[in-house]
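Preliminary data (for renewal application), zinc ion complex.
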Amino acid sequence: MDITLNWLPSETVFSFCSRYHIVFGHSVAHQTTQKLFQHHRLGSAHDFPARLSFLAARFDGRLGSAKDIALKHTILPFFLPLRTTEQALQSINSVCGTNNHHLKYRLGILSSNQGAAHPLKSCNSCIEEDERLYGVGYWHVHHQLPGSSYCRLHKQHLNIAKEKTFGFRKDQWILPRDSHYQKFTKENHSHNNELCNYQSFLEAYANYGASGGFLDPIAVSNTYQRKLLNRGYTSSKASKKLKSSPIINDFIIWCRFLDKLVYIEQLPTTVPAARNFLSRMIRPPRSGTHPLNHLLIISWLFDSWEHFYDEHCNPPHVGENSTHLHIPIRKNSSNNKKRDRVAELLATGISATRAATIAGVDTQSAIIWASEAGHTIHRRPKKLKPDIRNKALKMLTEGVEKDEIQQYCSISRCTIDRLIRSEQGIKKQWLDARFLKTRMSRRGQWKILHKQNPALTTTKLKLIEPGTYSWLYKNDREWLLQHNLRTNQGPTSNYISLPWDKRDIEYAGMVQKAALSLHQQNPKQAIARHELMRLIPEVARKIRWLNRLPLTEKAIGIVLKHRQKNSTTQLMAEDNLKK
Ligand SMILES: [Zn+2]
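Predicted structure:
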């Protein structure tokens, strides 16, 4: 029976188990918990579950490995990029194994300023769309991220559920439609690009964690410093406290904007709080800073996650100490003129190095100014040997996953990303190759599903493999429609429902009539299957779907059973279906 459930796109493990609870009609929550996690309570947490290896084993690995589940279907990856690999592995093991006690403590969540409750969140339009597509509204991973308040797809705020926080229905399995929601207290901006952009930072950061990516905490802190420097902000050498009031004011404006619209526990909205916050974030990093604090500053300083990531991976080489805030770079009129000149030159399409020479500034300043002005700078890859480079490029054109390339070529994720950005057309080739691979795999899955369940309609098959169906429906609709037509599965959509019950009664009657007629023609002769089917071609055509026609199946069974006994006379006497 478990086969009927599979992941929905971007679904949390809590959501999956809640669907399981409802589908299998368990009356109390611990029945489901026990069945899925081999424990009456552990596993039911909505943010950091436990015992995922029991869940993975329960479904024979069909849901993926326990680690896959932890990385793709929980909010754990959001907390991993700034941890050491060892800490990340420990955290993953905690949710996969039998005990995740102290995980929130170890991740620094309990001691942070950003709360540890992680309330369940949902978007009204997503629920409606999911109900239309999959028959059920469910919890999406990216909506559950800390600080997440906005659905980018529908440009609307998320609702916050009361369940699972402060002990309310703590151990329950619950879906968005059955939840109680808090009163909406934030300003409702129905379409807000900045809010959408902020949400994209949260999602990109979590995706980066889910792909096994790590950030170097020192490089992160240096990246903030460089960016602030570039804006002309200075600090005292001794305290490294930010002196400039424009930076504080600018940051406060950003925090107040977010405070009106999103749910973040603590935002530095006063001058002392903002000054302390920024000073803390540009110091050599301490462990346990909540990711939301980083995202607050990243989303303020950078226009996209990619932009930040690029700066973090490729610091400009302008001297050993250049990244510290005590080196003042002041905006002055001479600099402004040079900056404008560099911008003009870059607009003509020449390289940053050439523009720097003509404008009489050093290359790194030109690169920073160009980046600030939104120009894409093509840097040369650092010492990537030609044979490795070619190998990596070949693998990219074949659509090989980055993780695999990383391992096979012994190069970093940054190098692969840089290669993709620097090589003309390689990104498209990689994406196209990956698309073809995914398409082949999805088509294969759908064909196997059809083969294994020839009698099921598309609507039912959709319930078994919702992910495959929705991928094909979105990306390969023509093939899906043609395949379903070829296999005579009826319409792809679920708008038309065949009246199987009515048909079943009709067919059963036809079987009995035909059997009676054959019996009357030759009372002593057993009825052969082919003779029976010859008389009822409509039923013969539906013979593959007999499991959907129970009365017909029973009637045929009785006729043929009596054929074996060679006692058709008795058959008619026993057969009470016609009465
Ligand atoms: Zn939505």
